[in-house]
């Protein structure tokens, strides 16, 4: 069974749509196997987004993702990485299809509600970072 790391980013928590996001994950048939509400420290945020370290938006992204509590969870299911990214929609919420989480709830590229691992390699790395005991 494949596992993926999902985050409900601080904007999603602030807007009180934790239940909405979890409900979509559950309705899809995916299973939650770990979940925690926490505020990331800067080092963890930088490690999580290390692939973007050289991008112009990196500092702002780290500030945003550490700016309030987020929900981290491990989601399991058949092809869960691809399945969750389909639920999330395109990175830019303006072009994300209506019916997706980003398409339905967001308008700005940074504050796009959720994160989902993008490969088996990153899922493994990210799950270890957030849930080392799992
Ligand atoms: P994520 O990693 O959060 O699941 O999102 P993603 O794969 O769809 O997008 P990615 O390219 O990995 O970008 C990571 C996050 O950085 C923010 N971002 N800001 N200002 C910008 O141009 C910009 N581009 C990306 C978003 O929060 C994006 O989800
Ligand atoms: Mg990404």
TrEMBL record:
Keywords: ATP-binding, Cytoplasm, Kinase, Magnesium, Metal-binding, Nucleotide metabolism, Nucleotide-binding, Phosphoprotein, Transferase. It is found in: Cytoplasm. The gene is ndk. Its main location: cytoplasm. ATP binds at residues 9, 57, 85, 91, 102, 112. Its EC number is 2.7.4.6. Major role in the synthesis of nucleoside triphosphates other than ATP. The ATP gamma phosphate is transferred to the NDP beta phosphate via a ping-pong mechanism, using a phosphorylated active-site intermediate. SUPFAM superfamilies: Nucleoside diphosphate kinase, NDK. PROSITE patterns: NDPK_LIKE. It catalyses: a ribonucleoside 5'-diphosphate + ATP = a ribonucleoside 5'-triphosphate + ADP; a 2'-deoxyribonucleoside 5'-diphosphate + ATP = a 2'-deoxyribonucleoside 5'-triphosphate + ADP. InterPro entries: NDK-like_dom (IPR034907), NDK-like_dom_sf (IPR036850), Nucleoside_diP_kinase (IPR001564). It holds the Pfam family NDK. It is an enzyme of class 2 (transferase). Gene3D superfamilies: Nucleoside diphosphate kinase-like domain (3.30.70.141). GO terms for biological process: CTP biosynthetic process; GTP biosynthetic process; UTP biosynthetic process. GO terms for molecular function: ATP binding; metal ion binding; nucleoside diphosphate kinase activity. Belongs to the NDK family. Homotetramer. One of its GO terms (cellular component) is cytoplasm. This is Nucleoside diphosphate kinase.
């Amino acid at each position: 069974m494949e596992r993926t790391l999902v985050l409900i980013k601080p904007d999603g928590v602030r807007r009180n749509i934790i239940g909405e996001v979890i409900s979509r994950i559950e309705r899809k048939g995916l299973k939650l196997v770990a979940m925690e509400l926490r505020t990331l420290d800067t080092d963890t945020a930088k490690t999580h987004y290390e692939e973007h370290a050289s991008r112009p938006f990196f500092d702002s992204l780290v500030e945003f993702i550490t700016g309030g509590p987020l929900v981290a969870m491990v989601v399991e299911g058949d092809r869960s990485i691809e399945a969750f990214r389909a639920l999330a929609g395109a990175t830019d919420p303006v072009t994300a299809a209506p019916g997706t989480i980003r398409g339905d709830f967001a308008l700005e590229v940074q504050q796009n509600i959720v994160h989902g691992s993008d490969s088996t390699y990153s899922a493994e790395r990210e799950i270890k970072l957030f849930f080392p005991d799992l």
